[in-house]
Design a protein that fits this description.
Order of helices and strands: HEEEEEEEEEEEEEEHEEHEHEEHEEE
Shape: elongated
Number of helices: 5
Strand content: 35-45%
Helix content: 10-25%
Radius of gyration: 23 Å
Structural class: alpha+beta
């Protein structure tokens, strides 16, 4: 009985790899190691931003060992997604699944293609899964899906398959500081639609790096009740929105839009609801004095 169950699972995984594998491609868009990608719909290839290091002379090796030219439709560094257009597509859209049905410990399969175009796979489980995740690049993913499997060199950009053989996201090592994570289908669809329409994802930013610090005792009486901490400015981007507004290194930001802030996540929440050109009103502590400031949000450059 045990052998029969294992054989059934093995055959189903093999069939899933074969069915989706026809949509998986090799993307040659950087000097050394190519990356993987998937023909998300006919003529549209999704891969990872960190694997596309040039905007021209991009080649895509399709499953049938055909090499076609590709044009960059757009990229979004904050979700590590890049979209390419090809004229000679080889397949229709793969079957997409619902990543919200994934559970901790579920068996999953990651697919990729080698430099020569050979289809390769890596199996494992869902190592961690939770709700919406805002990564260190400022991008918002519908879920935080961490994989307990090996993403070998070149696997980034390939799809993750669930036990039903459906694509539930795009795998990358470019968002989790070297860890294998998956950009869920819902996020990919949203980013792809916007990149095909406008060629970019516009996200506002302040242009500063901050860390939480305790507010000095002698300042607390001047601040809103219960304020015990603020955000110390440890870096200011040259020419960024904060510098233009007059923010200095060493300032302590404690209020945004009338609300006290003690953690960087609170700033990210404010930015998530804003758009480029909005004015963010803040209050800071500088040299023992409280100073109000207005920062006009700029657009985060792609890099």
């Amino acid at each position: 009985m045990a052998n029969s169950i294992l054989e059934t699972i093995s055959n189903e995984l093999a069939s899933a790899a074969e069915n989706v594998g026809s949509s998986v491609v090799t993307v040659h868009a950087r000097r050394w190691m190519p990356t993987s990608g998937i023909e998300w719909k006919k003529g549209v290839v999704v891969t990872v931003h960190h694997g596309v290091q040039r905007d021209e002379d991009i080649k895509v090796l399709l499953g049938g060992e055909r090499v076609v030219s590709a044009k960059l439709a757009g990229r979004d560094p904050s979700t590590d997604i890049a979209v390419l257009r090809i004229e000679e597509g080889s397949s229709g859209a793969p079957d997409l699944g619902d990543s919200t049905s994934l559970r901790l410990g579920h068996l999953v399969l990651a697919l990729g293609r080698t430099r020569r175009g050979d289809l390769v796979a890596s199996s494992g489980i869902i190592g961690s899964i939770s709700g919406e995740w805002r990564n260190r690049r400022g991008g918002s993913l519908d879920q935080h899906i961490r994989l307990d499997l090996a993403l070998y060199p070149g696997f980034s950009g390939g799809p993750l398959l669930n036990a039903q053989g459906e694509v539930v996201g795009i795998n990358t090592q470019g968002l989790g500081q070297g860890r294998a994570v998956t950009v869920p289908v819902a996020t990919v669809n949203r980013v792809v639609e916007e990149l095909l329409k406008t060629g970019r994802i516009t996200r506002p930013y302040l242009g500063i790096a901050m860390q939480s610090v305790e507010v000095p005792e002698n300042m607390r009486s001047k601040l809103p009740a219960e304020t015990r901490a603020g955000l110390l400015v440890v870096h200011v981007d040259n020419g960024g929105p904060a510098e233009k507004a007059g923010v200095f290194l060493g300032d302590v930001l404690f209020e945004v839009a009338g609300k006290t802030v003690e953690h960087v996540d609170a700033i990210q929440d404010s930015l998530a609801a804003a758009k480029v050109g909005d004015v963010l009103r803040v209050r800071i502590i500088r040299a023992g004095e409280i100073k109000p400031m207005s920062i006009t949000l700029g657009e985060r450059a792609a890099r």
